Amino acid sequence: MTTKIHMLANMFGRPLRFRITPGQASDVTAAPDLLEGQKAVAILADKTYDSNDLRGRIAAMKADAVIPSKRNRKAFIPHDTAIYKHRNRIERCFGCLKHFRRFATRYDRRTAHFNGFVHLAAAMIWLR
């Protein structure tokens, strides 16, 4: 069984929220839960989060959706490439989490235990 970790981070690359989903689930299904109750000027995400539904939620938040269009999208939606370059901060945050061996190798068999450790590791990142 595989899992995916979806994360919401602030503009400094510090983790705010996590969702752990089954590996076969679509990435865009976790995004609405992560964005619930958040305020932002812009939401940066990669191509896997490109959907009209998510773009509508982001517009309802009065934020800009900086998400590149998927290749199979019929109507290409442009995005701000200068702002999109800052998406590497979330990648760096995942890199910091991978410094914790237990996170990188996923020793925990139960999702609840793994989720608890992810929150502990995120707290450690905030304390740095």
List the defining traits of the structure above:
two-stranded antiparallel ribbon, two-stranded parallel ribbon, 6 helices, globular, alpha+beta
Can you characterise this structure?
This protein has 128 residues and is of the alpha+beta class. Helices cover 39% and strands 16% of the residues. It is built from six helices and four strands. The chain has helices spanning 31-35, 52-60, 81-84, 88-97, 101-105, 111-127; strands at residues 3-9, 15-22, 42-44, 64-66. The strands form two sheets. The chain has a two-stranded antiparallel ribbon with strand order 1-2. A two-stranded parallel sheet has the order 3-4. The radius of gyration is 15 Å and the shape is globular. The chain starts with a strand and ends with a helix. The model has no long low-confidence stretch (mean pLDDT 89).
Give the SSE map.
Elements: E1 3-9, E2 15-22, H1 31-35, E3 42-44, H2 52-60, E4 64-66, H3 81-84, H4 88-97, H5 101-105, H6 111-127
Parallel strand pairs: 3-4
Antiparallel strand pairs: 1-2
Shape: globular
In total, the number of strands is 4
**Strand line-up of the largest beta sheet:** 1-2
Give the helix/strand class. alpha+beta
Q: Determine Rg (CA atoms, Å).
A: 15 Å
Helix content: 25-40%
Order of helices and strands: EEHEHEHHHH
Assembly type:
single chain
- The parts where pLDDT drops under 50 for at least 5 residues are none
How many helical elements? 6
In percent terms, what proportion of residues is strand? 15-25%
How would a crystallographer describe the biggest sheet?
2 strands, antiparallel
> If you average the pLDDT, what whole number results?
89
What is the first-to-last residue Cα distance? 33 Å
